[in-house]
Design a protein that fits this description.
This protein has about 350 residues and is an all-alpha fold. It is about 60% helix and about 0% strand. It has helices spanning about 20-45, 50-60, 65, 75-100, 115-130, 140-150, 195-220, 235-245, 250-265, 265-270, 275-305, 305-320, 330-340, and strands spanning about 165, 175. Strands 1-2 form a two-stranded antiparallel ribbon. A hairpin with an 8-residue loop joins strand 1 (about 165) and strand 2 (about 175). The model is unreliable at about 1-15 (pLDDT under 50).
Length: about 350
């Protein structure tokens, strides 16, 4: 049960004053982005036994997965897959529990939830890399490139199939995987299913623009001529830098909020909330997006190695952690067990 402003318990344990004007608009923008995404994901896949099960089934039915040649992994590869997904599930389990009882939600948890959401997905990317027989990334940039390649080749269903490339600064950017109408969506407007593609396009565009701003700053500081403090970066150079940059995806969005929480300004996610309800809404939306993103990567991994490996790993982790069937791990164990029962052995 969610708390609301008429609940007798509302505000009893409030630790901070809401909202701080400096952070109110940025917070609202992130809340709208992630609630819109969570709504899309829940609407598409949440009618199954669980969100994870709905996404697993959707990935299995996604035509590009039909062309994947399944191979039984050796012991080393199996261990790498299991280890990475176990790390992902462990963090997801903690995130899920953080928002599981609204009455005891700590709004200050939003200072670390964005970072933990990213790391949950990062370890799932490593698990998918091992399952698909690719080199397991050694850093975040490599992990994001690997995930981005899967997005661009069409391996993932909506909304994870969306991407942006090119240079937003010169309006030479392009989108894939979604069909924005081109109509402007105000960043502070409430989420609406009719404008979800436009809002997602804006999120990808601004995420790409932010990273390109960083790269342009680096370029301005390179080989500065004597007597000057920086170099100019003209339109052609900007577009050249942008064309060399990998497409921007939802994986990059999660990296963006992780960096903001860790290195830039975590106060945005805490002090910008209008009240405790807003703080909880952001946390819940982030957890839904994270849960879904991990499930997509699990589904893609299973296309390569079959359901038995993840079914056994999830069941063992569920037992080890004494997780209930409704937990993040329990939902996966149940989903893969059902898949295993109806999948002929190869």
């Amino acid at each position: 049960m969610r708390l609301d402003s008429n609940d007798a318990r509302y505000g009893e344990n409030m630790n901070i004053s809401f909202p701080d004007p400096e952070y109110a608009e940025p917070f609202r923008a992130y809340l709208n982005y992630f609630e819109d995404l969570a709504g899309v994901i829940g609407g598409l896949y949440g009618l199954d036994e669980s969100l994870a099960s709905g996404i697993h089934n959707a990935v299995g039915a996604h035509p590009p997965t039909w062309r994947i040649q399944r191979r039984v992994p050796d012991a080393t590869r199996s261990a790498n897959v299991e280890r990475s997904f176990r790390k992902s599930w462990g963090t997801l389990r903690r995130l899920d529990r953080e928002v599981g009882d609204p009455e005891f939600f700590d709004e200050e948890a939003n200072a670390w939830i964005p970072a933990q959401a990213y790391y949950t997905v990062y370890h799932a990317i490593l698990g998918f890399a091992a399952a698909s027989g690719q080199s397991v990334p050694r850093d975040h940039a490599a992990a994001l490139r690997l995930a981005g390649k899967e997005v661009v080749r069409g391996a993932l269903p909506a909304p994870w199939d969306a991407w942006c490339e090119g240079c937003p600064h010169t309006e030479s950017h392009r989108f894939g995987g979604l069909l924005p109408s081109g109509e402007a969506v105000h960043v502070l407007s409430s989420p609406d299913p009719w404008t979800s593609d436009d809002r997602l396009a804006m999120l990808l565009r601004t995420t790409r623009k932010k990273e390109l701003d960083r790269r342009f700053r680096q370029e301005r500081e390179r080989k500065v001529a004597p007597g000057r403090t920086r170099r100019n970066v003209n339109k052609a150079k900007k577009e050249s830098i942008a064309e060399k940059m990998p497409p921007t995806t939802l994986f990059d969005v999660l990296w963006r909020v992780r960096k903001k929480a860790n290195y830039e300004d975590a106060d945005t996610f805490v002090l910008g909330a209008g009240d405790e309800i807003d703080a909880l809404r952001l946390a819940q939306a982030l957890v839904i997006v994270t849960d879904g993103t991990v499930a997509v990567l699990e589904g893609l991994a299973v296309a390569y190695v079959g359901p038995e490996l993840l079914a056994n790993a999830a069941r063992a982790y569920e037992a080890k952690t004494r997780s209930c069937p409704e937990s993040a791990v329990g939902r996966r164990s149940s989903s893969w067990q059902r898949r295993l029962e109806r999948t002929p052995r190869r």
